[in-house]
C-alpha cells in the first residue's frame, strides 16, 4: 500500500509555486524547497497536486511548468466606510472544459514548444469585404442556429 503524503509537503510545494505567478518548472521547485527531495518523489507529489487541481500543469516533459490555479476576484457587495476592501472580496475558480484547458495549456507553452502553423495566402487574397465570406453558407447557418437561444417566458425576478 502506498504511503500517504503529509499535507505539509503539499503546502510547501504550493507556497513555493505561488511565489511565481508565471509558473515554475520542476528543477526550479526542487531548488526552492528547503528539503532536498529525490527527483522522482517531487514528480509524484506534483502529479498528485495536479490531479487534485491544486496546481496546474502547462506543457509536458521538460517544458512542463506548474502554477497555482487561476482565480478571479469578485466583489461581494458595497464596502461601508472603514471596511477594508480585501474583506469585501471573494476568490473563486473559473471552471474550464477539458477542451478549454487543453487550449489554454497549449497557448501558454513557450513558442519553441508549439507546432508552427501556416495559412493559405490565396484564401485570404480572395476575400472581399462586404462582397464575399470566409465561411460557406452552410457553416454560417450552423453558427447562426447554434447562437440562437430559446426565449422562455419567466416571471420577473428569475
Describe this structure in words.
The protein is of the alpha+beta class and 158 residues long. It has helices at 7-18, 26-32, 39-51, 98-107, 121-125, 137-147, and strands spanning 56-58, 65-67, 71-75, 89-93. Strands 1-2 form a two-stranded antiparallel sheet. β1 (56-58) and β2 (65-67) form a beta hairpin. It is flat, with a radius of gyration of 23 Å.
Output the keywords:
158 residues; alpha+beta; two-stranded antiparallel sheet
- From the helix content, strand content and strand pairing, which structural class follows? alpha+beta
Largest sheet: 2 strands, antiparallel
Side-by-side strand order of the widest sheet: 1-2
Q: Which stretches are poorly predicted, pLDDT < 50 over at least 5 residues?
A: 72-81, 83-92
Count the beta strands.
Answer: 4
Strand content: 5-15%
What does the average pLDDT come to?
79
Continuous helix count: 6
Helix proportion: 25-40%
| SSE run | HHHEEEEHHH
Coarse shape: flat
**For the terminal residues, how far apart are their CA atoms?**
52 Å
Estimated radius of gyration: 23 Å
Gist?
The protein has 158 residues and is an alpha+beta fold. 37% of the residues lie in helices and 10% in strands.
Secondary structure layout:
Layout: H1 7-18, H2 26-32, H3 39-51, E1 56-58, E2 65-67, E3 71-75, E4 89-93, H4 98-107, H5 121-125, H6 137-147
Antiparallel strand pairs: 1-2, 3-4
